[in-house]
Records
---
Amino acid sequence: MSHHTMESEVQRRKERIDRGIKVRTESIYAVSSWEEVAYLLVPRMVLIVGLLLLPLVIQNPYWHRVITVVGVYGLLAVSFDFLAHFVGLVSLGGALAIGIGGYASALANKVLGLPPLASIPIAGLTGGLLCTLLLLPCLPLRGIYFAIVTLMYPLVLSRLIEALNILGGTDGIPGVEGFGNVWVESYGILLLLLLWLFGLRRLANEDLGLILRGVKDNDQAVRASGISVTKYKAVAVFIASTMGCLGGAYLVHLYMWAGISLFAMDFSVLPIAASVIGGGGTLVGPLLGSLILVPVSELLREFGTLRIAFYALILMAFIVLRSEGLMVWAQRKYHQFERWVKI
Amino acid sequence: MDILVYGVVNSVSLALMALGFTLVYGISRLPNFAHGALYILAGYLAWVGIRSLNMGYLLSVLVSLGVVMAFGMAMYRFFLIRIRGMPISEIIASYAMGLFILEGLRWKGLKGMTFTLPVIFPGSVDILDVPVDYQRLLVVGIGAAVVLGLWAFTRFTRVGLALRGIAQDEQAAMMLGIDSDTMATIATGLGSALAALAAIVLLPLGNIVVETGYQVLIFAVAVCIVGGLGSWGGAILASFLIGFAQILTVAYVQSHFQVVVALLAIIITLILRPSGLFGKQKQLEERV
């Protein structure tokens, strides 16, 4: 079509219109036709079935483990997206939740003797609470405070562990109980991820989600409605950091070791890149982004910390050139058709 | 006496690190999370000039200052300008730029004791019975000169006045014919040059390592938050508060805790006085 616009003097623009089927599937009457049911179910099924098939299809034990790591990064990336695009808080420290959740789970396992199935949820909840408490002072404020404080905590905590020689110091806590079964290992995290993903999507359309989006778009209006902005931000931070802590706890049991590397920069930067590539604000997009980035990152393992520079480059390119991300683009193509019209 | 003298030196160092950041944020409301990376980049460029290209000290330093300043301006003009006004993207994009520079330099081998800048005047002198080397005196001198220079620049030159105009009320300034983007470009360039200047004076006191880049960013933002974002007077007062707190911690507790002091300073400020010491005019906007 583009050569038309160049040849003729008539100017054209692209018009986007919702597909008829999209409009028809918006209400309960979607169940009246198989076509419309399929329109709704196919994308969700591709995601669910595709994710659940991954561990079956991939036989190589190394890459099998990478799937589990994808799950952890997926959780982290979805939680970043939730905070950034539904509440308006940019967290530059995903490593904070990973580290706190990881150490909490390692302690629950080693000190209290709990099995992984008990220590992971406990670490998720206590870690989420602790992260929320640590971040509470910067929640009443808008602006860059949250970003800088989340950037500082992982650095400070790893420095403290090193300097005070607590929690195993630089050696970390070895001998954490593993899962013992590769299927529990991979399916546990994938189910957890799907559960959180669909749960958050549901939550975003409930009253709580409405308030949170209000906080992002116009916090003064939310405050004027007599709703405490700080309280709801704290709830959102708790939800997001619980997700991150669950991921950290999972990672500790996967590697059977907790150490300072849980506070590493990778956990903070990769989820941001995944979210920007996948499409911020869609919740599914960041998962897609992690599915792409984590295996690439494994392939680039020999480059060490240069990988972070590589994520940063992708981030810059996407944010400037393709700021909508893959998932927003895909959703647009799925729900709308485009045509050229004369101006 | 040790604490008094080294406290002053440390405070002025912090002020030097922070001024560039607070300048850009105060004028354009643009949080430049690449600030620490520009600092290290300047140090590295000067090192390359002196050690690899044998350009001599003065020329290397000037080239490094100029390159970093041009880089900062280009960074705004071609990159940050496209996402201006979108707070989430501003933070992510400038942080990504900083990460790219720092981790790229780390990959180039920027670690360990091998990268050091020479001091300008070797030797030391006793002040109040405390031996202080000339480089530290130079830090204090340059710090004072920068503060005075900025003060004069923003009061007695057209560009400086225009920058203040944009900082106070962007829309009113635009109505008077001041171009917001030009001013932001100048501000980013100045901020980057200040980061480079700080690097050239401060880096001879230690090694050029990537971790310093993250620390400089953290110290700069800590100083700005405690002082009140965008307020210069506040930033200078805050750097003295944090500077002395750090020196006291180093003297009585442990040197590892300098970053902890900065974090605690931010947290305490956010709890007690969220808009910082002198951040009054923006109080309503930032506090919800």
---
Amino acid sequence: MNHLLIITALQSEAEPIIKQYQLEKKHHSEKLFYFQRERITCLTTGVGEKNVRKRLGAFLQELTCSNTILINIGIAGGKKDSSEIGTMYLINKITSDKSGKAWLPDILLKTGIPEVQLTTVSKGVTDGGEKYKGLVDMEAAVIFETAVEFFPVHCLVFLKIVSDYMDEVLDSPEQVLPIMSNNLSKLDSIITLMQNSEIVRAPLLNEQHERLLTDLNNTLKLTETQTHQLKNKIEGYIAIKDDDFSFLSNYLHIEINSKQERSKIFYEICTKLSS
Amino acid sequence: MKSAQNFLPDFSHIYIEDGAEKYPLAKDIIKRFPKAEKIYIPDYKTVFNRSGQDFIQQKKSMNLILAVKKPPFLYESTDILQDAGFENFVYTTPLLNCLYNCQYCFLQGMYPSANLVAFANEDDFFKAARNAVVQRKNKNQPLVLSISYNTDLLASENIIPFCRHWIEFASTQSDILIEIRTKSALFNVLKNVKPHKNVLLGWTLSPQEVIEKYEWDTPPLDRRLNAVRQALEKGWKVRLCFDPVMIIPQWQKVYGRFLDELFEAIPVDQIYDAVVGVFRMNKDFFQRARKREPKVDIYYKDYELNKSVLSISEKVHEEVKTFMLEKLEQHFSLDLIDIW
């Protein structure tokens, strides 16, 4: 099952999610906390570029799950003629109002959610937002920019719920909570889809394989080139035959006392893996 | 191989580069996908060259990018491209990437994206081809132009009618021979197009065992042969391509049986010529392809590196040449066989 990292800007956007999935508060550092249970993690970044860069950047630096999908969910301003208040949209293009740069998530799965583009602005828009195409928020572009350093583009999902028609600033918990709560069932179906999809591929070598490889390197005192060659041979063995190369564990008890001994054992292992 | 449960169908999204939409070809393609999400982009590379793309996952739900090609429109031959002995050999790339997913193909490691890029400014390509005819080095030979090099154009003809347009163009020119190499069984899309001597349809054929193991998402052999027969009946020039001959267990037996059955199934005397090649891939593309799809056995065989190209050993290569030549000689005169 894939791990989901849900990112919100406001705590009130996260609250219904925390409640729904019974997430528990945990501390990343003294000042940065998040909520988690099993395969769902929720992090609130705070509003705007600066907060996202600081908090999300720090969080992702230490995230160890290799099969994570990031979902950014939150409220956004919409256009009266092309969006509906309370409706959830999947974002297919994010433009930074500040830099003009466009970010394009890779939408590969069937979500059934209507798609729209979005502009990330630095200040709340209350003039109707005539000049913007699609929706407007304050974080998506910088979330994408930060997260794309850690995730493939198809593992970045942006969901926005229209809260207003860019004619008022709407961010109090009383206003945000019902909008989020009303969309929880839709979010739940997306979470189920993402968790169970084959969209994140498992690496050829699993953690156990990697551990055995590391132990072999240490025991046999392999050179960098030999390490690379051994990894290559093991991958080939798995690709062509199967993933059981536990017979290599026998070599973990060997003592290497010279380069000649090392070369001999290395050659023996490579021959077995190639046979 | 496509196992695309929960994945969107191909071309659910069409990315349109600024300026591409005005071309008739782009308008035609957009019309064919009324339900697709249209996303406008400043440059096709914004999507195609994004970092962090997953080629293998994108193959399960390919999207289309409409763009305007900038010069050059034609390219000189490469070390891994067969020129069949023609001196004025060039290739062009109206479409980048392929609907098929052949594991031995250099496209597995060439581009950062599995999405298709269709260049809508066809007239610029045609103009470049006309100029190349005039400027070709050996005036005793035609300009030979491969138009299906970084793709399989016939396979995507239902979506993007490049073949029809190129055939129409070639039919109005002299001293040009265009080659459309394919694995497609979609010959019907050309049924109303008049065959022309300036057009060569080349079918890549492999034993069914090889098709199933490596030529993912391609039509089976019997359907390809059916397409070959239809093309011959209509009077097209048809080339048979055995490229690459894959070194699988008992490859001589497998290919021997395949060739025997093949020459029973088609009127060989009507075939224009035959080309044979072996697996070869640029070293960098090979490494990238292996990283992307590490479970394919091709990437763990012993190859020899020559001028940045990885290929089977010279010894096995010679065995392939001898074997294939012996088989093909029974049906073709030597001058009609090009072995790479």
